[in-house]
Amino acid sequence: MIDRYGRTIDYLRISITDRCNLRCLYCMPAEGVDWKPHGEILSFEEILRLCTVMAGIGIRKVKITGGEPLVRKDVGNFIRSLRAVPGIEQVTLTSNGLLLESFLAENPALSLGGINVSLDTLDPELYSRITRYPGDTLFRDQGIPSILRALDLAEERGIPVKLNCVPLRGLNEAELPAIAALAKKAGRAVRFIELMPLGSANELEPIPGNEVAALLERAYGKLISYHGRLGNGPAEYFSLPGFAGKIGFINALSEGFCECCNRLRLSSGGMLIPCLSSESGTDLRRLLRSGVSEDELQAAVMETLDRKPGSHNFSERYQIERTKHVSGMYCIGG
Ligand code: SAM
Ligand code: SF4
């Protein structure tokens, strides 16, 4: 699939649930989230049908995300079925990592092309503050320790791991060098993602990528540009002295990453969304449940592709819509 701006679109991010076991400050409100009723969430069979249709017109890589994908039952079997869809070459997963250790233990032979784990701090109290996760004695072997064990377990199985961290002014600033240090291990990448004006993020202040880079250089030495390819995303990667893994930056606001955008997003409720900043998408759930043919589904996907904008409008949003509610990542297939 080639869009109006000449970009090849071969990557689909699928949110399999809007639910989550955390309530990160930048993603969800603390309370009162209106979860979609089960009947409004696409079944795995429906998602597999859509993936078969989309693989037929060029989708090759799929990322499973949410909400927190691992709170949904039977994700392991779903991933195995997805791997068997003709044309799908890679399936990856994004998770907050809290259930990852047990998920990997229950699915010892799962073929995953990579796992992204979100971790904004290694400090249990700050973790509780940012994620609103109850900070009690469970932290001794659950919580952060379990996330770190899951990273090692994935790597022992040959699954590449990337850590995602959102730098937040006045919250995890001092923690960023410690998070970066997780990339001292070979084969691992730590990426710093600029806060985007989605969900509850408008009350928080981002730290621009160049500021994070300067902070890391003060701690570890000069960042050296890495030109190799790592994964399917928009991150720019660097090496640091003494680091066997890489450091990445996703500077969505200060630099933009739209020229090389390769993706569509499918929300858990079945909306196919052309861009993170899109206010609307195509209701594939309604189409699926009204008994349409494969050709009609393909046409709906192509029509959505045609509405993919050349770039997001986040900078304008920060200036003129700071107080307006915008759907969080967990709603739109983050
Ligand atoms: N629950 C999983 C997790 O946290 O990795 C998967 C879904 S989460 C919505 C996917 C990613 O979106 C996470 O890395 C999270 O940090 C990021 N995210 C959520 N809201 C964001 C925002 N407003 N700006 C930047 N990144 C955000
Ligand atoms: Fe849940 Fe991920 Fe959103 Fe945090 S960022 S609330 S872990 S979906």
UniProtKB/TrEMBL annotation:
Protein residues bound to [4Fe-4S] cluster 2: C258, C261, C275
Gene3D superfamilies, alphabetized: Aldolase class I
Cofactor(s) recorded in Swiss-Prot or TrEMBL: [4Fe-4S] cluster
Residues binding S-adenosyl-L-methionine: Y26, G67, S118, M196
Keyword hit for Hydrolase: no
GO molecular function: 4 iron, 4 sulfur cluster binding; cyclic pyranopterin monophosphate synthase activity; GTP 3',8'-cyclase activity; GTP binding; metal ion binding; S-adenosyl-L-methionine binding
Record field: catalytic activity: GTP + AH2 + S-adenosyl-L-methionine = (8S)-3',8-cyclo-7,8-dihydroguanosine 5'-triphosphate + 5'-deoxyadenosine + L-methionine + A + H(+)
A Pfam family recorded for this sequence: Mob_synth_C
Record's function text: Catalyzes the cyclization of GTP to (8S)-3',8-cyclo-7,8-dihydroguanosine 5'-triphosphate.
Name assigned to this protein: GTP 3',8-cyclase
Encoding gene per record: moaA
